[in-house]
Amino acid sequence: MTTIITSLRDNSGTILAGLSLLVILMMALLIRATITVNKLHKRFAVLLSDESESSMEIMLREHLEERRNLQKQVESIDHRTAILERKMQRSKRHVGLVRYDAFQDIGGLQSFAMAIYDDNGDGAVVSSIVGRADNKVYGKNIVGGKSDRNLGAEEQQAILEAVKQNQASSVK
Hints:
Blueprint lengths: L1 H9 L1 H37 L7 H35 L3 E7 L10 E7 L5 E8 L4 E8 L10 H19 L1
Antiparallel strand pairs: 1-2, 2-3, 3-4
């Protein structure tokens, strides 16, 4: 312990000079840091000042308000889209049409069978048979893709055409 104290006493001038140099260096770094902080503080104050029309705080508030409004719009659109998708499943939008000659003596493909149904296979088949003196129209329900009545070949073909049209629109 005495050797340390003796060594400190003998080199006290050198140690004092080194510590003084270190203090001066630390003061220079402190002054530089203070100047940098003051510059940043001034720039930050300008960004957040209420006097400036382009104040960062104003811009952030406007941006957040706009974001909230857009979020409300997106939620509204999502809600309306869900409603439309549910309605669309029940809409009668799959159509198949087959034209044919019901009788050999009447041409021009005037008779027809038309199938109309929704995504669940619910709808109807409408047939119109044109003769020389009359026109008969028949309607048959379709539930789950099946009818409770016997279907003619043209009516079955109309259902197949509607299925093809449905599959073609699903692919797109």
